[in-house]
UniProtKB/TrEMBL annotation:
The chain crosses the membrane at residues 585-605. One of its GO terms (biological process) is peptide transport. Residues 1-33 form the signal peptide. Keywords: Membrane, Signal, Transmembrane, Transmembrane helix, Transport. It comes from Streptomyces agglomeratus. Coiled coil: none annotated. The keyword Glycosyltransferase does not apply. This is ABC transporter substrate-binding protein. Pfam families: SBP_bac_5. The lineage of its organism: Bacteria, Bacillati, Actinomycetota, Actinomycetes, Kitasatosporales. The keyword Membrane applies.
Length: 615
């Protein structure tokens, strides 16, 4: 769900690199963009402080990293907590985060991390290996704490902290994501006081203690999340005096606020909004290849690990011929041309083409193309024939009709829903487009037939694949699992286990492609598009900012905190260097990995974007 979407998406989401040891990382802010002749710093306050306001359209599901699965929430956590490793802004290879280096044993079953000595929690206490060990052990022992990121520790055998700067993780079997653990490390002295991790949302006490570039200072549901710079951050404090993520239910309202200078940045722009803003003074539009996929998901029959079924998904969707018919009756080219108006690429496999090593395409004989005649034949074969009124009916005589979950804040959902009503209506199928402010509740309850789905995929596809394993199902119908839409397929699980343990890049990529092929053939999901990241910011408020990757990349939903940490206010004359991306943005960060002498080579996997990724 990603999801952006129900998002959990990723479940923010989505890495193989060979590193010859990793030492310290040097990052320098770059400048070089001309300061506007008539800057209009609407975000400057009376006291002279500067606020960077980012419009967001997604609600925070939880401020607890143990529970959060939406892109906006995982973005918050990347800003206030450090992971063991981070990702280079140029090419996403693993670089130091809380850990300065990491080494595997010869059998790759024991990994030793050196935890930096210059990372402090925002309350002044030292961040240590014990904090990391406590975080992982809590996820290993407490099911509630494993809700969002449990897949990363499922293979952990033992985690210890022999010293404040030494973390040791012992594995049951090799795990290719050990330099791509997308798990925020939490301060033990604050979190060990929590009782029930499955219910604790971390939204009552402010400021929130963290060790990232920002400190979370305030939060109001569906209104805003506020941050101040962490002056103790080891890379250096951000240059804006305050960062605000401001919630807008309506995209047009967010764009209007951008025009007025009430916000500094807005994302998820429609083609019409982007075209209009491209002509506006002091506004820069960034249109970059996206990390997301946009899909049509079916309910395969909601179930939990204890074998209990729940929800009210339409039983016709348990028939693969019906699912294939619906996909064959969906015109992806029209969706790209008419809805996204060219700001997207036609969907195929589960991993977007931006990640070429893992991107998969169905073979000609395998591909389900737009073919209404074939769709009609499949429905006939499945036992749903047209009656005299032109309606498809089953053996029970009832007309065939479905519900599809639609995000009320997403204009793409609504537009595509209308097309699908027309296409499927021609086949004799009814479709109710259920546009809701909150799609999470019915989705998690299994109370849907189909849904518009989407996830942000990171360079390493492990997490976004894990959400379709049987292990991701909720323990009971009352629990929340990490599953996207209740898929549980033994063959898929077998392939997932193999790719997790495979360190050879080519072999792992082949396994990941086999997994995508399996998802495609089972027909529970139809990836319709890979949308571009279409976003805009005010140049009279933001002088320089970093895209990821720095050449033609995106700003919102990055694998890291680079955009908002690097942002330079328009009034600041920063002369530390310069650079640019293919979008014309000034790159604010140049990351250089200093290789530590004497450290042997090993394969490091990059991480997922989040359950970003759910967004």
């Amino acid at each position: 769900m990603d999801t952006t979407t129900v998002s959990r998406n990723a479940r923010p989401s989505p890495r193989i690199r060979t590193l010859l040891g990793v030492g310290a990382t040097a990052l320098a802010l770059a400048a070089g963009a001309a300061t506007p002749l008539n800057p209009a710093p609407q975000q400057a306050r009376a006291d002279g402080s500067r606020t960077l306001t980012v419009a967001v359209s997604q609600s925070v599901d939880s401020l607890s990293p143990f529970l959060a699965q939406r892109l906006v929430s995982t973005t918050v956590h990347r800003l206030i907590y450090e992971n063991l490793t981070n990702y280079d802004v140029k090419d996403n290879h693993a670089i130091p985060g809380l850990a300065t280096k990491w080494e595997p044993s010869p059998d790759k079953l024991t990994w030793t991390y050196t935890v930096r000595e210059n990372s402090k929690w925002s309350d002044g206490k030292q961040a240590t290996a014990e904090d990391a060990a406590w975080t992982f052990n809590t996820m290993m022992k407490d099911e509630g704490a494993a809700t969002a990121n449990g897949s990363f520790v499922a293979n952990f055998k033992k985690v210890t902290a022999p010293s404040p700067t030494k973390l040791v993780i012992e594995l049951k079997k090799p795990q290719a994501t050990m330099a791509a653990l997308d798990v925020p490390i939490l301060p033990r002295h604050e979190w060990e006081k929590v009782g029930d991790y499955s219910k604790f949302n971390n939204d009552k006490k402010f400021p929130v203690v963290g060790n990232g570039p920002f400190v979370l200072t305030d939060y109001k549901v569906d209104q805003y999340v506020k941050f101040k710079p962490n002056q103790k951050f080891w890379r250096g404090a951000p240059k804006f005096d305050e960062l605000v993520l401001k919630y807008y239910k309506d995209g047009d309202a967010a764009v209007a606020a951008l025009r007025k200078g009430e916000v500094s940045f807005a994302s998820n722009l429609t083609p019409a909004q982007a075209a209009s803003l491209a002509k506006a003074e002091n506004i820069k539009v960034n249109d970059a290849p996206g990390r997301r996929f946009y899909a049509l998901a079916t309910n395969p029959g909601a179930r939990s690990k204890d074998g209990k079924k729940f929800g009210d998904g339409h039983p016709a969707l348990l028939n693969p011929k019906v699912r294939q018919a619906l996909f064959a009756a969906t015109d992806r080219k029209t969706i790209i041309d008419k809805v996204f108006q060219g700001h997207a690429v036609e969907g195929e496999g589960y991993i977007p083409p931006r990640f070429a090593a893992y991107h998969w395409k169905p073979s000609e004989g395998q591909k389900i193309a737009y073919d209404p005649a074939k769709a009609a034949a499949l429905l006939d074969e499945a036992g749903y024939r047209k009656n005299g009124a032109g309606k498809r009916v089953g053996k029970d005589g009832k007309p065939l009709g479905f519900r599809i979950l639609c995000h009320a804040t997403d204009p793409n959902d609504k537009a595509i829903g209308k097309y699908m009503q027309e296409w499927w209506g021609d086949l004799g199928i009814g479709l109710k487009v259920d546009c809701l402010d909150n799609v999470s509740d019915p989705w998690l309850a299994g109370e849907y037939d189909l849904a518009f789905d989407g996830w942000s995929v990171n360079p390493d596809p492990d997490f976004v694949l894990s959400i379709h394993t049987c292990a991701a199902l909720p323990s009971t119908p009352k629990d929340t699992g990490a599953t996207d839409n209740f898929i549980c397929d033994k063959k898929f699980d077998e392939l997932y286990a193999k790719q997790t343990a495979e360190y050879d890049q080519a072999k792992r990529a082949d396994l990941v492609k086999q997994m995508q092929s399996r998802l495609y053939d089972t027909g529970y999901m139809n990836v319709m598009a890979y949308p571009n990241a279409v976003e805009a910011y005010r140049t009279d408020q933001i002088r320089a900012i970093t895209t990821m990757p720095e050449s033609g990349g995106n700003l919102w939903g990055q694998d890291g905190y680079w955009s908002w940490w690097s942002a330079v206010p328009a009034e600041v004359d920063d002369t530390s260097g310069g650079g640019g991306s293919s979008t014309g943005l000034v790159v604010g960060i140049v990351a250089a990995v200093v290789l530590a002498a004497g450290i042997g080579g090993f394969v490091a996997m990059r991480r997922r974007s989040t359950a970003e990724d759910r967004e």
